[in-house]
Specification:
Order of helices and strands: HHHEEHEHEHEEEEHEHEHEEHE
Helix content: 40-55%
Structural class: alpha/beta
Largest sheet: 11 strands, mixed
CATH superfamily of the largest domain: Periplasmic binding protein-like II
CATH class of the largest domain: Alpha Beta
Length: about 300
């Protein structure tokens, strides 16, 4: 009976031109390869190639089987790849958490685009304030975490998505309006409006205020970006957000934006995953889609300077 291994052997023999090199390609000894070919010739009742020729000269019978191998083996490889892909996606579910409240602006278009690539992968999104997302990733409770605060954790890989600048949003009639930048000390007598998360997860604290030993006069929290902008526009405080999250409010002259420090405060947004999941085709497709979509829908972001981080 003709088998796929026979076809692979014939292709290896044709491409290498000798029994010795063909045996190496199919991981057999020369003796085992010769035995396999002789056994096949006995079954077929005809020789497949002319012995002691270099390069190997195939008989009409051998040429016919080579033509069959050219047709069959590529189809087998495609089928094997498709089966592996289907097996990897069977019941595939992407459990995701977000440590960035304003990320939904680009995450929703990313998910929509991803559904065209991997419609059979279900996506569950949890808020980052439910529990410690990165620890949940280590414990395999999650598959991906969107974060701007990478931590050295065993087995966790951080894929940079894009760089962004944090800007201070102020009311159009605020004393800071029209300024290019402010110093940390100038926020000491201000009300700072933030998302309801720990200060250690906010760039305005970790990269601007805390290193300068400054704390605002008052800190208020709001769940939604729109609520924060309403408070800022009405003069009830100032708010630091990624530049792309402020775009629509700046275009409508709802608020003004000021840099945090002369050089500005820049951060990088990462997708954190477990190292072994980097080989999953649908996971890589999601990361590629996220990076591409973010540059399509967001203003003011830049390609990441960071290389992928891993523990």
């Amino acid at each position: 009976m003709l088998e796929l291994r026979h076809l692979r052997t014939l292709i290896a023999l044709r491409d290498s031109g000798s029994l010795v090199e063909a045996a190496e390609r199919v991981h057999l000894t020369q003796s085992a390869l010769s035995h396999q070919l002789k056994e096949l010739e006995n079954r077929l009742g005809d020789a497949l190639f002319v012995r002691k020729t270099r390069p190997v000269q195939f008989t009409p019978c051998g040429q016919r089987l080579l033509a069959l191998a050219e047709q069959v083996l590529p189809q087998v490889r495609i089928a094997e790849r498709d089966v592996a892909r289907l097996a990897a996606r069977r019941d595939a579910r992407l459990h995701m958490a977000i440590e960035c409240h304003s990320c939904f602006q680009w995450l929703m278009p990313t998910i929509d685009a991803f559904r065209h690539v991997a419609a059979d992968v279900e996506i569950d999104i949890l808020g980052g304030n439910v529990f410690e997302p990165l620890n949940g990733l280590v414990r395999e409770q999650l598959d991906l975490v969107i974060t701007a605060d990478p931590q050295a954790l065993p087995g966790i890989h951080y894929q940079p998505l894009f760089r962004y600048q944090s800007l201070l949003a102020v009311a159009p009639d605020h004393p800071f309006a029209g300024r290019e930048w402010i110093e940390p000390e100038e926020l000491r007598d201000q009300t700072l409006i933030i998302y309801p998360v720990e200060h250690t997860r906010l760039d305005v604290f970790t990269r601007f205020l805390t290193p300068a030993g400054v704390y605002p006069q008052e800190v208020r929290s709001a769940e939604l970006t729109m609520m924060m902008m309403q408070l800022v526009a009405s003069g009830r405080g100032v708010c630091a957000l990624p530049n792309w999250a402020l775009t629509e409010y700046l275009e409508r002259d709802y608020v003004n934006a000021v840099r945090l420090g002369e050089q500005g405060v820049w951060g990088t947004l990462y997708a954190a995953i477990r190292g072994e999941q980097r080989e999953l085709g649908w996971m890589q497709a999601f990361l590629d889609t996220a990076k591409r979509t973010s540059f399509e829908v967001l203003d003011g972001i830049e390609p990441p300077e960071d290389q992928p981080l891993a523990s």
